[in-house]
UniProtKB/TrEMBL annotation:
The lineage of its organism: Bacteria, Pseudomonadati, Pseudomonadota, Alphaproteobacteria, Acetobacterales. GO terms for biological process: cobalamin biosynthetic process. It comes from Acetobacter persici. NCBIfam families: cobal_cbiB. This is Cobalamin biosynthesis protein CobD. InterPro entries: Cobalamin_biosynth_CobD/CbiB. PANTHER family: COBALAMIN BIOSYNTHESIS PROTEIN CBIB. The chain crosses the membrane at residues 110-126, 357-374.
């Protein structure tokens, strides 16, 4: 499943404050290290979800290959929905129950922290129960496959490719109207007045950012912690996309979700930029690297600027910059120093770059899986 543009619109998530990030990182550590706390009643249960890298890397590699080849079966959507939809339903319920307009700002922030614990804790509890049941009934190799199949539903390589390619198809077959309609499916900005360059830039920005958030990040957390890592990340990321905004309703309630998402996406955004730089044509790698170094820190998001700047430098374009959200102009910094006049041909080149970056990522996971599976 793909999210919309994660640029912080008026009311998007804020950057990382070191002290606040420390609190979030501490909580994050406790979530995964609960198994080492003898006084914790969940310690035995949490310990069963800690897998060695000889398991988690193969799970991540197999999940990446499966998702790239098959994607999420369309027939399952009307039948059972999608895991992100299940998490979203939980978030909606908690938002309604705990985010009361009559609460003070401090109480709403505390309720938001409680909601985030439940948003992450409930899916992890369900995951643990399924893995525990499966491990009692199935041999270890089959359970590795079960983890991979489940984890691949939380990765978006194929759907991201299809959604962005549809923008190019829309422009070619339906002109500006077709392009605007297609790009509106993957971005949150106003699209009604976008020209061809604006449509293509929006699609490329979404491609770069969702490569980080929807592909690299879930596979990174899977490689570290197996299926529980993927579930943890997707719950945190979905919480941020739904409540991590600076709107009057969610500024306090979604504070913890926004901060945690900033932290858990830090490594993935840097890895995504590296993959895009390596995937760039040899003569453009230095420019892509320079764009990241120069422009990524200028982005309002602590993470989005990294893959966007790499994409811009590799394609000789300028991405990001000013845009409209619900009629409000947002003056973001430009990523890259090329031309802002992007064309459909540039979108095609961006998709080629994306496929190469995905191949590099999958290659690293496969090599890591082989290395960790070989006995010392």
């Amino acid at each position: 499943m793909m999210g919309v543009d994660a640029h912080a619109a008026p009311g998007g998530s804020t950057g990382i404050d070191p002290e606040e990030a420390g609190v979030v990182v501490c909580w994050l550590s406790c979530t995964f290290l609960a198994g080492s706390a003898p006084a914790c009643p969940l310690s035995e249960s949490a310990a069963r979800m800690v897998f060695p890298l000889s398991v988690t890397f193969p799970v991540a590699a197999l999940a990446a290959v499966l998702e790239a080849a098959c994607g999420y079966p369309p027939a399952l959507l009307p039948a059972i929905g999608h895991p992100v939809m299940w998490i979203g339903a939980l978030i909606d319920m908690l938002d309604t129950a705990l985010n009361r307009p009559d609460f003070s700002e401090q109480k709403r922030r505390m309720m938001g922290i409680l909601a985030l614990i439940l948003i992450i804790g409930v899916p992890l509890w369900v995951t643990e129960a399924v893995l525990d049941l499966g491990s009692r009934a199935l041999p270890a190799p089959l359970m590795l496959g079960v983890q991979a199949v489940a984890a691949c539903t939380l990765v978006a390589q194929k759907s991201l490719w299809e959604h962005v390619r549809a923008v190019g198809t829309g422009l070619r077959q339906g002109g500006l109207a077709g392009g605007r309609q297609a790009v509106a499916q993957i971005v949150g900005r106003d699209t009604a007045a976008l020209d061809e360059a604006g449509i293509v830039r929006a699609a490329l920005e979404s491609l770069a950012e969702n490569f980080s958030d929807g592909v690299v990040a879930p596979l990174f957390w899977t490689a570290l912690f197996g299926l529980p890592g993927a579930v943890f990340y997707k719950a945190a990321n979905t919480a941020d996309s739904m409540i991590g905004h600076l709107t009057p309703r969610h500024a306090a309630f979604g504070w913890a979700a926004a901060k945690l998402d900033d932290v858990v996406n830090l490594p993935a955004s840097r890895l995504a930029a590296l993959c895009l730089i390596l995937a760039a044509p040899a003569e453009r790698r230095a420019a892509a690297r320079a764009a990241v170094r120069r422009d990524a820190p200028r982005h309002r998001s602590p993470n989005a600027g990294w893959p966007e700047a790499a994409m811009a430098g590799a394609l000789r374009l300028r991405l990001a910059g000013p845009r409209l959200y619900k009629g409000v102009r947002v003056d973001d910094a430009w990523m890259g120093n090329g031309t802002p006049d992007a064309t459909v041909a540039d979108l095609d080149r961006g998709l080629v770059l994306y496929r190469r970056a995905c191949l590099i990522l999958v290659g690293v996971l496969l090599v890591g899986a082989l290395l960790f599976m070989i006995p010392a």
